[in-house]
Amino acid sequence: MRGIWLKRAAGLPILGAAVAGGVWFAWPPPVPVDIATAKLGPMEVTVDDEAKTRVRHIYTVSAPVVGKVLRTPRHVGDPVTADETIVAIMQPTAPSFIDVRSRGELESAVAAAEAAVKLAGAEIRRSEAALEFSLGELRRAQALARTDTIAAKALDKAKLDVQTNEAALASAKAQLDVRRSERAAIAARLIDPSSPGSSPGPTCCIQIRAPVTGRVLRIIQESEASVPAGAPLIEIGDPVDLEIAAELLSTEAVLIPAGASVRIDGWGGPALRGRVARVDPAGFTKVSALGIEEQRVRTVIDFVDPSDAWARLGHEYRVLVHVTIWSADNALSVPVSALFRKEESWAVFAVVEGRARTTFVQVGRRNNRMAEILAGLSAGENVVLHPSDRIREGVRVARREEQ
């Protein structure tokens, strides 16, 4: 009997070890989580969006008259000097083609005008003959008047006839000039692109010069073409005089104070500093990529850094702007990913002695990454990031790197 008890007593440690092993294997391990620490430090809230650089003052050169603009001698990026550099050359437009019926009508009109010229020439010859006869009569009347052979009235009648015939001759000559001009006008209507001399000469053209000193930003009409008066031809500006135009949502634009600081990046170089120069007082509707109508407000931003820092930027380059609407030097903050809603309030899972504890917090300002904590947490406390459905009150957790 005693031997049996001895055997049982010797088996108790083995049984205890087996039970302890089973309990250890059955006990749930801590949930691996990402952990962040609430810290005091600088924090800012920004309005972030894409924007474009643009030359502050762009001058559009337009066609001053209707005509044919020749292929531009300039290229994008070429330097130009005010009132010196030729940026466009214009010629008169070539006459249009004439259909068969119109040509027949014009040729008949030219023949009629030629006949009118001949008629005016005949009228001149008649007037000259009448004038010559009246001059002879006047000379005879003057000779008779010296001997008192004729009355004074007859002498006056001879003088009147001379003056009348002189006026008739002048009128006939003027009429001839009118008929010749009419003939030339009708004949000019017969000119078409195939007629000799229809092409303009080298001295007939208009040379359009640059209105300001700068560089060619855009060539609107590059090839030769007929253009109406006022048609835009080329854009000129100074690439060193750059600003940034951002189209922000109106709900965000109202939060931006005048002179707000801006961080500029995403352009291929180091981050730059800027300052809000103007928020337009009028908005406009813009359709987003998802087809949603949005009210946008254009915001103009000036560079603060010297031009050497952004010399590689040009007209209409893409940048990312971060406009500061609030900042603090010593704010308590945690990552936004640690927050979740519970009972109409914000809460986090604080890590206390290796376990997750639900902690309600009062949230202040937020940006894309961090949230300001006004109450509920202290600096140095750890919180769980991206809490999943496995995280509950009192669940054991461990930092993911330790697993």
Automatic annotation (TrEMBL):
Predominant localisation class: other
Q: Which domain of life is it from?
A: Bacteria
Where does it reside?
A: Cell envelope
Keywords, sorted A to Z: Coiled coil
The YknX-like C-terminal permuted SH3-like domain, residue ranges: 331-398
- Give any Gene Ontology cellular component: cell envelope
Q: What's the protein called, per UniProt?
A: HlyD family efflux transporter periplasmic adaptor subunit
Q: Which organism is it from?
A: Vineibacter terrae
